[in-house]
């Protein structure tokens, strides 16, 4: 990588020397000013699928850990990308992990725990020796690479002042393990880990054991003895209180949140979560941009919700503004929020408020083979993004990171055709793509997009 090409204000693809270039509109990472956004990385050789070095030999299947081998390969790739960008591991401020869960099994039930990530975490902790960055860990049904067990993407903040991310911790809050970062602050930014409603002890062996094992903190539990007892509401409130405590410990508050990621095990919990969200953020015009992902596996028994956030510090409050125009979500968040030199979008699907799945994004019922579902839906999503960008005075080709959630990864190839057409004459954004465990919020919608745009 020619580092002289990395200029402040520019958007630059990062390609380590010798790294294969797959035939998709893809960049391993994108440098945008002082930001570095990574595509989802797995143990793929980018040519044939799972790398040979990451595979467990079929004739000795029990002598090595498949997760351990894949994690080691993944982090070697991450190290190469980070070095090519002129960055270091300690500048990474967010990690998102997507684990292959057992959702494809007909016996799978919401709330099952089917992921064993221990050896991945051990490898991750060896890479991040100074500080393990804020992170989320979510179980999904399928990954893009056959036999891959984990995919991870990353965000780094390369502060011009040379500042390093510093950990932030709220006193008195239960913590999962040494080295875990509840949050990190760098400059006027604060990044908070995905949080769940646990005290990292649960009711195992406790006097309050109710007969069903779970990991929930006492304050987040419901007794389910009466109508209207909604576990997701209690859990959401508990999580937001925890995040508010960490923000306060850093010197800011959730009033300065610019983006929230909300993951739900069960889409039927949406209304309960929304009730609580409205109490915390009564004015949607001042709320953070928000992505809400249903049908994923949350990594603790009994936990139904996970929430992560990016925030600004109070001295940078003037750098936050709501983007209005182009699209108005049905749920309680703005279409997008400008935060310093980034624009965070709320989750986008190919929806029309009058009919659900937009007619322009739908195949003709009598001619179901005369088009590609994925391409039509992604094209509509990108058109919706263009309208939001126009309202913000930006260009959709300034998108630097996309996380795409599919109900079926067979839609991916078509979606990438629309993606290729949009970014034909510009950089190729960093992209992560995963398959969740069922339908999205609107019947017929097979793609939900989460975008970050760089606008200096």
Topology record:
Layout (H helix, E strand, L loop, with lengths): L10 E4 L14 E4 L2 E4 L27 H19 L7 E9 L17 H10 L7 E6 L1 E2 L6 E8 L8 E3 L14 E4 L2 E7 L35 H20 L6 E8 L5 H11 L8 E5 L3 E2 L6 E8 L7 E4 L12 E4 L2 E4 L5 E2 L3 E2 L15 H20 L6 E8 L5 H11 L7 E6 L11 E8 L2
Parallel strand pairs: 4-5, 11-12, 20-21
Antiparallel strand pairs: 1-2, 2-3, 3-7, 4-7, 5-13, 6-21, 8-9, 9-10, 10-14, 11-14, 15-16, 16-17, 17-22, 18-19, 20-22
Helix pairs in contact: 1-2, 3-4, 5-6
Explained architecture:
With 456 residues, the protein is α+β, with helices and mostly antiparallel strands. It folds into 3 domains: 1-164, 2-Layer Sandwich (60s Ribosomal Protein L30, Chain: A), CATH 3.30.1330; 180-341, 60s Ribosomal Protein L30, Chain: A (2-Layer Sandwich), CATH 3.30.1330; 348-456, 2-Layer Sandwich (60s Ribosomal Protein L30, Chain: A), CATH 3.30.1330.40. The protein contains 6 helices and 22 strands. It has helices at 66-84, 118-127, 231-250, 270-280, 373-392, 412-422; strands at 11-14, 29-32, 35-38, 92-100, 135-140, 142-143, 150-157, 166-168, 183-186, 189-195, 257-264, 289-293, 297-298, 305-312, 320-323, 336-339, 342-345, 351-352, 356-357, 399-406, 430-435, 447-454. Strands 1-2-3-7-4-5-13 form a 7-stranded mixed β-sheet, with helices on one face. A 7-stranded mixed β-sheet has the order 6-21-20-22-17-16-15, covered by helices on one side. Helix 3 (231-250) runs parallel beside helix 4. The longest helix is centred in the middle third of the chain and has 20 residues, at 231-250. Residues 1-8 have low confidence and may be disordered. This is RidA family protein. InterPro entries: RutC-like_sf, YjgF/YER057c/UK114.
